What does this fold into?
Amino acid sequence: MSEDHKERSPDLGQEIRASEGVDALPGRLDRYGKAKNRAVDVAEYIGQHLDGEGPLARRVGACGEYLLFRHYYTADLLRLHAASFCMKHLLCPLCAIRRGAKALKAYLDRWEVIQQDHPALRPFLVTLTVKDGDNLAERFRHLHESQRALWMRKHRGRGCVLDGVAGAVWSYEVKRGAGSGLWHPHLHMIALAEVEPSQERLSREWHAVTGDSHVVDVRPISQEDPASGFIEVFKYAVKASDMELADTVHAHQTLRGKRLIASAGCFRGVEVPEELTDEPLEGLPFVELLFRHLGGQYRPINRATR
It folds into this structure.
C-alpha cells in the first residue's frame, strides 16, 4: 500500500484557489498523482477481495492513466481538457477531487447570485451527528430519516429552529469514530439565514428527532472567504476515498446509488456538471500538454501547439 493515503485528504480549496496559469500545473500534477496512487491501491484491494481482475478493479485502476491539459498561453489559462475518469468518486480520490471541486464552484456561484438578491442572508455551517454504530447502512438510514424529520417540522409550520433558513445545501459524510472505532455518519450543511440558528435549540430538537444524539454545531462562515466553509460540505467524497481500504470499499458498497448531496429553498436547482474535465476556451490559441502516470507520478509525453 502506498503512503499517500496516510496524508490529509487533498484540499478542494486548492482546486478552486490555485492560479489558473501554467504555474499551477506542478501542484495539480502532484495532487492528482497522489490521488491516482491511492486509486491503484483501492483497485488492488478490490481485485484481491472482491472481483479478482473484474470490471470494477480494472475501471478504478485505469482511472487517470493520462491527463491532457490545454494551456491558453495568450491569457495564461490552464484547462484539463481530457482524462480517463472511472466516475467512482467514493472509491477514487481523483474523481472525488474533481467532482467535489465542480460542486463547490457551482454552489459558490449560486451563493454570489443569492447575495445580490438577498443581501441580508448570511451563511452558517451546521453539523448534525447520530450515535456511532457498527452497521453503516442502519446508521446512515437513521441520519437520513432524522434530517428529513427535522425539515418536516419546518414545513408543518409549528415552529422549528430552521424556520429562519431560506436555503440550504448539505452532504453526508462517513468515517470511523476516533474514540469508538464504530461508524460515525454525520451531516454538514450550509444554511442561509438572516440570524444565526440557535445551537441550543437545534440540539434539543435534534435529540427529539433522533432519540440518540444532541451533538450539533452551528458557526458562521466568513463572508470574505465563504469557500472555507463551503469546502466542509463538498469534501465528503474525498474523505470517503481516504479511509482504510476495507472501509473505503465497504462505504462504496453501502452508499452507492444513494443521494449524498441535497438542497432546499434558494439553493434548490443548482446544476453540477457531470463532466469532470474543464470547459474549453473558444477562440484562443493553446498548447496541449499530455501526461501519463508512470512510476507513481505524472510524466510529460509530448507538447503540441495549435
Summary: Residues 167 and 268 are 8 Å apart (CA to CA). The chain is about 40% helix and 20% strand.
